[in-house]
Structures are given as structure tokens and as C-alpha cells.
Design brief:
homotetramer, mainly alpha, 77% helix, globular
């Protein structure tokens, strides 16, 4: 399951670059209209990188799976697979309100799918398992879900509020996390 | 063989999203024409997820392979590789009769290819092997093949009959399967 | 090296399907112009399947590699990576002479690259190694190279001569090969 | 981490071929406009091959990772993921000055990202670790960074100076490297 998930995330993160359409001009000005596409690409690259890191870390603590887990995992991959689509829509339309909000909807769904996956894994392994301890209360995960929930309507008011909130989530996860460090060290 | 197959299925499931063409508009109405493409994408994602789960489960019981098996496996991957094409054709034409029927043809061929693969594996491992026991009579597999056979001509009459039958197959496999559970637990 | 090569071949074999452009019509007649693209796709799928099988089998007998081997392998992957391009060119032009000949040039180059890889591996492992025995004289490989050499100019005379010769190579490799069987059984 | 990185590099190296657009003509002359795209493809294939080789070699000496390393690695993959884009821009514009310079900017950024990754790994493993010895002073890596730095402004003067310097770096790495050999032999 880990190899398959890693493969899918690796493909998603890479095919996104196919949305960076080669411009016709040959000067730096030809790259200017691509700026918003490029910014969206960076944000999604980081978001998918965070999912890969967390997912990788989560699966390391897994000792067995059942059919429910396999589908909870595919459910997460489904939402992640939509990231290239919403990234391109948001980027090509220079952060228009609706695409920015829809981008948030996909991130929200992915964060809920991740939550479902962790709960299904804890239900299977038991509340006193290493896995349950490693996941903990997953405060960051729940905070992210909350921020996405707020960001979606706020994007419709001002696109940059939504976008800034997505950035905030990314930065929150990029900051070295002692919990992951500890687990990796063990 | 498992790594290669996992890789191919992971790529097929992911490149399908490239057929979700970014719309030009920036409002929710711009997503409306994509609805049928999106529904087709979900159905195919689930179908490929089912194949991945079953294939994964099948290969776990395999102890050795020969040239025949490698080609029976590539034959299955060939039909699965056509799923993105028929998914896009069906979705972009809002479930027109012929594309819905052709979608069924590819699913039918894939289900037959899967059947051939399991028979070749059982022939190689022996009728009393763990693999033969794990596969069993594969009632669900044969039922799926039968449903596809019926769905193809029925799609030409009314597209939604075919589509509903494909959905039925998907739901039939999504319902927790005690047989797989038992094997995974062992 | 094996995982990377498997990954690259899996991606090449799968992205070829992206060249099967979704037709605009919704009847079976809309698929007719795709027939030559589809035939080319099948041929290339089989050819890449043969390379994957042989490559997989070859690497199983490898015990160590050096920089030379890594590059001989990348050289092979380079030519294989051009298969989707020549497949599409040949298919979209309904087997015009020059594209059929150029398709043969890529197959020829890949077969030479495979030969170089096996020689480099034998040079490294020694002429009395298991690998050298497993590869043997590689009569089929050299015959394939010879057929491609003949097929390229003959394609320019009549496209179907070249195409038939490519088919001949494919069938020659598809026929169960006792040499591979024996090695897989061990 | 190695499997994921291998996967991403395998996908990047392969999707580049999607930029080789199938020409409309059916004679050899139809391939002529593709010549610069093809040359760019070869150069980038070799460059990514070098990164794969070095990265593979580097990770073999790694015994443990932390969050910092995972992100230093993703940072490298980010720049490598832009290679198909700049390759296509450079190739489709027949080596216009600005695209050639921007191609160098991506290579420069990737070489700096690789440097950061090696330093982070050495910081984690200690200056007397096998890894630190294996990496050594990485003279070639630093020389490459220097050549890119020079090539970027020189590309704006004459495109072929920049391009020749990129070729020089590629050749420098292709020449058998006793350091890598020694490590692979151990």
C-alpha cells in the first residue's frame, strides 16, 4: 500500500508541471503571465510534499491493514489526484475567487480523508497502539481542516485571504515538527 | 511483477485526471460541462482501485511465475491502460450510448483478462495451493463479467442502464468482502 | 537500478495511451480513424512488454553494477523513451513509409542498446558467471537487430513489409521461451 | 525516501518526451523543426540521469533522515521537476538566448539544492561518517555550480556559449568517476 501511495503521490506532484504550458515568446516578459500558474504550482508542490511526508510517517507505524483501510487510503488519493486540476484552474485564472475557493474545497476534502484514514487505522490498531500514540490528537491536522473551512467562504470575498490561509497551513507544517522528529529518530 | 503492475496501475489512475481539462470560465457554472467527465472519472477511479486491491491481494498468494503469467499480467494491464481513453470519451460526450457501451467493452475485456490471469496462476500453483483456495470460485469476478456482457447491448438502448450496471459492479466490490479480510488477516 | 528502470518502462508504456486522442464523434465510425493509432499502440505495448520481461530477467542475474552499467542502462531507457513519439507519428499518419522506417530506427537503436548493456554486464561479471550463462549467445536478440536492419529500408518500399517484420520480432519473443522459463524456475 | 525520489525522477525524465510533439508531415523534413527540441531532450535526459546516479549513490550512504532532510530532498525534486518546462521552452524556440539562460537558472538552482541536501546529510551523520567521506569535498558539484553561474549571463550574449557550458558539465559527469566506482565496489 505504501509503494502504491508513494507512486500515486509522486505522479500527481510531477504531472502538475505539465500544466506549466510553454510560452510562445522568448523573452522574460513571456514568463510573466505564467507567474500565477507558477505560484500555484509551488503551493501545491509543498502541499503534496506535506501529505507525502505525513502519509509516509503514518504508514511506518502501521502493522496491518484491512479492506476498509485500503479504501480510506484510495479515498485520500482521490482528492489528492484532483490537486493538479484545481491548481491549474486557479493559476490560469490569476487567482479568481471561485477557483481559489474550489482549490480550498479539494484541500478540505483531502484533510478530511486523511483524518478518516488515521481514525480507521487507530480503530484497527487499538487506542493504546504505537500508531495511536504517534498520531496523537493530530492538533495540526484538525487546525488545518478548520482553516480550510474558513478559507473557502473568505476566498469568495477576497481571493488573497483564502490564498494566505492556504499559505499559513503550508508554513505551519513546514516548521520543524518535534513529534515527527522524535518518531523518525526512534 | 507486483512492483511493475502497481506502478502501471498507479500511473493509469493518475493520468486520467489529465482528461479533466481546465475550463475557461471562472465561476461554478464553468464546471457544469465537466460534470459528466468528473462522474466518469470517479467511476473509473473506483474500478481501477478495485483492480489494484484484487490484483495486490492475488499476487500476495503467488509464489512463482513463468513467462505465461508475465504475459497474462501484461494482457490485463493492456486493457486497464485503455480505461483513461474510454473514460474521457464517455465523459466528454455526456454518456452517449456508443461510448458508454465501449466503456463496458474495455471493462469486460479487463475482467476476462483478470480471469485468464487467475486461471494461469492456479494452473501453475496447483488446485490445492493456497492461491487456488484464496481465489476460490471467484463468484464475484464471474458475476461482474456477466453484468458487463449484459450492460454493453443495454447501453445502446438506454445509456443509464449500462452506467447503472457498471455502478452496481463497483458497489458489489466496495462492500466489505470477508474473503479478502480473512486472507489479509492471516 | 531495477526499480528505476521498471518505473521508467511502466511510465513509457502508460503515457503512450495519452496519444490515443479522444475522438469528437460518438458513434463507432468515430473510432475508425484511430485504428492505425490503436494498432501501433498494441505493437509498442507488446514491444515494451518484451523489453520489460527481458530486462527484468537480465537484472535478476546481476550481482553488482558500476557507473558504466548505469549509463548503458540509461542509454537503453533513452531509446525506449522515444517509443511513444514514433508510435504516435506512425499511427497518426496511417503507417506512412517514413514514420514506419523511423519507428524501426528507434527499435534498432534500442536493440543495440540492450546488446551493449548485456555485454557490459558480462564484462563485469565474467564469462563464466551465471549472468553470462543466462544471457548465452542471445541469438534472438541478434536476430531481432538483423530484422530491424532489414525492415528499415524495406519500410520505405512498402510500409507493410516493415510493419510485418516488426510483428515477426514481437511474435518471436512472445512464443514461450524455454531459456527464460528454465531460469525463472531456478 | 529513495523510492519516492526515484519515482519522481523517473516520471520527470519520461514525461519530457511528451514535449516532442508529433509532426504533421510524413517525411524526414517534418522532423527538422524538432531537431532543437530533440537536442534539448537529450541534454536534459543526460542531466537528469546524472542526478539520478548521484542521488542514488548519495542515498546509499544515508543511514537516517529527519524532517529537514525530507524537505531538502523535496526542494531538489522541485527544481528537477521544472526541467521538462525549461527544456521545452529552450527547444521549441531553437535555443533563443533567454530560454537558454533560464534553463541554466533551473540547473543552477538544482545544483544548489543538491549541495544543500548533501550538507544537511553530513550535518546529520557527522563529519567523520561514511557519508561525509563518500561525498568528500564534492569538487565536481561545486565546479558545476560555478559553470552554471558563468553560463547564465554568457547565454544572453551568445546562446551557444551557454549551451556548450551545459554540455561541458554533462561530459564532466559522464566521464567515469573513480570515486563513485570505488564506493559502488565496496
Amino acid at each position: 500500500m505504501e509503494a502504491f501511495s508513494d507512486g500515486v503521490i509522486a505522479i500527481i506532484i510531477t504531472i502538475m508541471v505539465l500544466e506549466l504550458r510553454v510560452p510562445h515568446g522568448t523573452d522574460l516578459a513571456a514568463l510573466t503571465p505564467l507567474l500565477s500558474v507558477f505560484l500555484s504550482y509551488i503551493l501545491s508542490f509543498v502541499m503534496l510534499g506535506i501529505y507525502w511526508n505525513n502519509h509516509h510517517h503514518l504508514l511506518h507505524a502501521v502493522s496491518h491493514v484491512d479492506g476498509r483501510i485500503l479504501w480510506a487510503n484510495l479515498h485520500l488519493l482521490f482528492w489528492l489526484s484532483l490537486v493538479p486540476f484545481v491548481t491549474a484552474w486557479m493559476g490560469e485564472n490569476h487567482f479568481a475567487s471561485v477557483p481559489v475557493a474550489v482549490y480550498g474545497v479539494v484541500l478540505l476534502a483531502a484533510s478530511i480523508a486523511y483524518y478518516i484514514l488515521t481514525r480507521a487505522l487507530i480503530a484497527l490498531h487499538g487506542k493504546s497502539s504505537t500508531l495511536a500514540t504517534a498520531v496523537g490528537r493530530d492538533f495540526k491536522g484538525q487546525l488545518s481542516t478548520g482553516i480550510y473551512l474558513a478559507a473557502i467562504p473568505l476566498s469568495l470575498l477576497r481571493w488573497w485571504i483564502g490564498f494566505s490561509l492556504y499559505l499559513l497551513v503550508a508554513i505551519m507544517w513546514l516548521v520543524p515538527d518535534r513529534r515527527i522528529e522524535r518518531n523518525l529518530a526512534e
